Amino acid sequence: MSLLLTGISELTTNDPARGDGHADPGDALLGVIRDAALVVSTDGVVEWVGPVAEAPDADTRRDLGGRAVIPGFVDSHTHLVFAGDRSAEFAARMTGTPYDGGGIAVSVAATRAASDDELRALVAARVAEMRAQGTTTVEIKSGYGLTLDDELRSLRIAREVTSHTTFLGAHVVPREYAPDRAAYVDLVTGPMLDAVTADGPTTLAESIDVFCEPHSAHAFDGDEARTILEAGRAAGLSLRVHGNQLGPGPGVRLACELGARSVDHCTFLDEADVEALAAARGTTVATLLPGVEFSTRSPYPDARALIDAGVDVALASDCNPGTCYSSSIPFAIALAVREMGMTPAEALHAATAVSARSLGLDRRIAPGQPAELAVIDAPSHLHLAYRAGVPIVRALDL
Length: 398
Description:
The chain is of the alpha/beta class. It has two domains: 3-71 and 364-395, Urease, subunit C, domain 1 (Roll), CATH 2.30.40.10; 73-358, TIM Barrel (Alpha-Beta Barrel). It contains 14 helices and 14 strands. It has helices at 25-30, 87-94, 104-113, 116-131, 148-159, 181-196, 222-234, 251-258, 271-279, 290-296, 303-308, 329-339, 344-358, 383-386, and strands at residues 3-12, 32-40, 46-51, 60-71, 73-75, 135-141, 164-170, 207-212, 238-243, 262-265, 285-288, 313-315, 373-376, 393-395. The strands form two sheets. The protein has an eight-stranded parallel beta sheet. Strand 6, helix 5 and strand 7 (164-170) form a beta-alpha-beta unit.
């Protein structure tokens, strides 16, 4: 049976060819159709999109009451498999304690101590929280186990709720390896990576990531990051990079050189970094995580400069226990508009179409595409940033 959705005041398709020709340039970017309708099949695939006056018949019909519909958010950077509480660390940062990555060890200890069922319940609750805020696709990293067994179980638990899993054994060097960093790099690129890909790449993880940050004593420098990424690529995994979060560094240019799908944070960039990202357009996405800057009192990335330079810019939450315990993409959108120079249309496009591209996905509302939809209790996508902090968007259950 097919379902006809009507009563859509504004439909964001992310397909400029389907827009209704309104003069607003944001509408052109988003492929907006006003007074729209769409037909979805029983197997969750979009069958038809267009003005409600041209809608075909369907077996059932649902009126959305003049609400806006958008593609579901794609949260392409999260760390959901963790236990423990680091709220005291947040409070300390608000009074001036800088972030250097050291608090990750607290989450590692708590996560190692948690049972599988405890971690599974925590992840399920976080994913449900995300859906309640409009996120329909989520990437989940490991990285709070940092032993072979704990990294594998983190990926297995993440795999139960998403196919977009990332091996982040190179999150930080765990305390027990602090005297011998090279041995830990060998563990990540050897036994850990072998186990992650034992049944073939994408079985447990589709990507490998590394926290490339010379400004943290706990993270990895450029040479270590290159070794880890090249090993992951040789094993058949796609590449993602935490880069240039705490200060200038090699992460962004390394990601571009190696053809990473995404380099995330991009807080401290020089002219050469921006040029590398622009040259890598179509391959490497700059994923900005404004919730982190909010939670660490750091400067926000200059999204306006990146977009004007021709860089592919995505937005994600970086939901994690230390630097941004927020699962809200609408919050990230509001920050991007208020603090980073993005228009509301650019921010929505970044959190859907471009984030999807960084995962190898196509996030449009078009015939043949999965019906991954979110509905806004407002007539326009503009309300996502306009009504910051108000729970007006949710994933649409069909």
